[in-house]
Amino acid sequence: MKKLKLNNDTLMPVIGLGTFRSKDEDAYNAVLTALKAGYRHIDTAAVYGNEEAVGRAIKDSKVKRSELFVTTKVWNTEQGYRKTLKQFNESLQKLGLDYVDLYLVHWFRDFDHLTRTWNAFETLYDMGKVKAVGVSNFNVHHLQFLLDNAKIKPMVNQVETHIHLQNQFLQDFCTKNSIQLEAYAPLMSHHIEDLLNDETMKEIAKKHKKTIAQVAIRWLVQRDIVVIPKSITPKRIKENIDVFDFELDDEDMTRIKGLNKGRKFFPEFDNVPF
Fold first, then answer.
1. What H or E segment, with its residue span, contains residue 167?
2. Which of 60, 58, 54 has its CA nearest to residue 73?
3. Are 152 and 125 in contact (CB under 8 A)?
4. Annotated binding-site residue? 162
5. Within a domain: residue 180?
6. Which of 31, 6, 256, 263 shows the shortest CA–CA distance to 130?
7. Residues identified as active-site
8. What string of H, E and C letters represents the secondary structure of 119-158?
9. Under a CB-based contact definition with an 8 Å cutoff, are residues 109 and 132 in contact?
10. Does the pTM of the predicted model rise above 0.85?
11. Which of these, 12, 52, 82, 269, is most buried using a 10 Å CB contact count?
12. How far is CA 173 from CA 15, 84, 154, 190, 194, in A?
């Protein structure tokens, strides 16, 4: 598994399993299947309500903790210094872990909450309870605020990224400031049929004798973007990590770049209704 180095030298596997909307036994089975298939990166969040199932699967997998990269996130209602520390400890207990590899601010709420929440993140980082800290659903101006004001700068920014929302400008900004971009909804989430029916993607997949989903994931990997495809189907979980035996050529990359539509399926970062 290819790994990318964060700005504090932590190594992050380039592909992980997303668990958004995976509940109870579905989450447990998906994580266990993924770990048996060679995944070592699992992404969850407090608001997903599946941290206990994820933790149980990690324990039952018998994979050494040192080999794993586990991410969770603080939810909006729990932002603030004391609330963040409280939710983190609850997440850690549910996961059954002594630390997490990456802790993220799930969404931008406002700059006051961000300041206090990030102070809690810095405390957790200094205590060794988190190996890396970052954010999710942040745009350039949110990131710039942290770069200007925080003692520890964010190491990861996890955002919706796929063939119709390619985020090149945001990635360029992140790269310039040593922030790793991470893609959720890489297969276009509930609009996956639009991905699977795209003629360009069909042609490229046929050329490489791979699935369209594998091409979409490989395209992100070749852009040095961490990707967390979500699935609860064993066959697809295994397929989604099987992208290291082929390479998209310059023509493929250019053709996929031409599919960008700036099409966003999840809320705008400054106008979340929660």
1. none
2. 54
3. yes
4. no
5. yes
6. 6
7. 48
8. HHHHHHHHHCCECCEEEECCCHHHHHHHHHHCCCCCCEEE
9. no
10. yes
11. 12
12. 22, 27, 13, 28, 28
CATH code assigned at 165: 3.20.20.100
List the domain range (segments joined by +) for residue 112. Answer: 3-189+224-233
Q: Mean pLDDT throughout 250-273?
A: 91
Length of the chain in terms of residues written: 274
Whole-angstrom Cα distance, residue 182 to residue 188? Answer: 14
Question: Is 239 part of a structural domain of the chain?
Answer: no
Give the residue among 140, 175, 183 at the shortest CA–CA distance from 43. 183
Which backbone phi and psi does 47 adopt, to 5 degrees? -70, -15
Would 11 be classed as within a structural domain? yes
155, 179 contact by CB (below 8 A): yes
Q: What is the DSSP string of 54-123?
A: HHHHHHHHT--GGG-EEEEEE-GGG-SHHHHHHHHHHHHHHHT-S-BSEEEE-S---HHHHHHHHHHHHH
**C-beta neighbour count of 190 within 10 angstroms:** 9
Domain total in the chain: 1
* pLDDT tier, 113 (very low <50, low <70, confident <90, very high otherwise): very high
Cα–Cα distance for residue pair 71/110, rounded to 1 Å: 23
